[in-house]
Amino acid sequence: MESLNSREGLFERIHWLIKLRWIAVVGVFLSVFFAVNVLKIPVPDIPLYTIALILGVYNLASLVHVNRSRANFPALANRIANTQISIDLFILASLVHFSGGIENPFIFYFIFHMIIASILLSRLAAFLQATLSVFLFSIVVASEYLGILPHYCLVGFVSSDLHNNAIHISGIAFVFVSTLYIAVYMATSISNRLREREASLKEVNTQLIQKDCIKSEYVLRVSHDIKEHLAAIQSCIEPVTGGITGQLNERQMNLLERADERAGKLMFFVKALLEVTRIKLSREIRMACFDFGDTLQDAINDVTPKAKNKNISIASSVEGTIHEIRGAREYIHEVITNLLANSIKYTPRNGKISVIVSDKGNSILIEIKDTG
After folding, report:
1. pLDDT average per 10 residues of sequence, the chain (372 residues)
2. Which of 357, 297, 286, 299 minimizes the C-alpha distance to 328?
3. Suppose 126 and one of 11, 12, 117, 142 were both cysteines; which one would form an S-S bond, judging by CB atoms 3.0 to 4.6 Å apart?
4. Residue 347's pLDDT is what?
5. What Cα–Cα distance (Å) separates residue 333 from each residue in 97, 99, 143, 278, 290?
6. 3-state helix, strand, coil in the chain (%, to 5)
7. pLDDT given for residue 47 in this prediction
């Protein structure tokens, strides 16, 4: 399973590691300067400054390499992360050697890399990095103890013979090694749980998307069927109101015209529902030019029966410069209709609702005011 668990996420985390490395470069320069010039500890500053410079150059090269490899990053992600952490451990071991070896309290900075490895890499890779840390630490300590490598004592900071004290070395080594492996175990356990939780959430999200598509497809089919039936109803009403089947009295004509009007409005809603459902399925909004004034008036007409039931008047004012606009007409119509319906709901009887539309250059401002 990939770390947390997307390759793009790993790319960002490697960039985060590079940023941390810049902090480390500055930290090494400042620490060496402070130790030599303030604390007067005789550490070999030239080798330490050189290692810090190498770390900076290596970090810059890593940044360039990662950016250039972005196109092929999915195939290189784990290799890049493993390589960078391994090089960091070699550099840290070199810094530890030139700054006191086992006497240096900064040896426990290896833990930071173990935590980073646990976040970026698999559990196996993180434990392998911990093993590499133990190996490098052991090489430095054993070589200084056996005299293979010179020991640079932190005079004035710790006792000068600690690197030759087998009991002290054994104790520090035990604490160091156990701390590294425990840190990796705890960090990888937490990371694995997060990865499992993320995978579970992704699976649930995928299922929800699939169910939403099924629901949308069902709505699309039902809406299409309703549209066909409405068209049939309208095709039956039109000949009657046109007098083809015979003369109608005023009351009959009025009822049929009202039925035809309601069927027309319902047809509009069904078409809008079809359009919205198609948008959800295709995941793109169809933008087109339309007359905003007509759309606003259609929305007002849709809620007028509700307003009349409460004797509420609706007045609209559209700035003269607003005519044809580009947008998703169905969505805009739906929003205005919902806002007006909400105003009618909370406006007492005999109230007033006003719709004011202003031209704001690249946009329009729609204000709906009521006496509720």
Report:
1. 52 87 94 90 92 95 86 73 93 94 89 90 92 95 92 76 79 89 91 86 86 80 81 81 78 83 78 73 73 87 82 87 80 84 86 89 87 79
2. 286
3. 117
4. 87
5. 73, 72, 79, 17, 11
6. 75, 10, 20
7. 94
Residues 115, 183 contacting (CB under 8 angstroms): yes
DSSP 297-309: HHHHHHHHHHHHH
Give the Cα-Cα-Cα angle 195, 197, 201 (nearest 5 degrees). Answer: 115
Residue type, 2: E
CA–CA separation, 173 and 25 (whole Å): 26
Backbone angles phi, psi at 134, to 5 degrees: -60, -40
**Options 1.10.490.10, 3.40.50.150, 3.30.565.10, 3.40.50.720; CATH of 287-372:** 3.30.565.10
Q: In the chain, where are the structural domains located?
A: 7-204, 287-372
Residues contacting residue 74 through CB under 8 Å, at least 6 positions apart: 7
| Cα distances (angstroms) measured from residue 342 to each of 265, 277, 336, 370 | 19, 24, 10, 10
Question: Exposure of 344 by Cβ count < 10 A (0-12 exposed, 13-18 middle, 19+ buried)?
Answer: buried
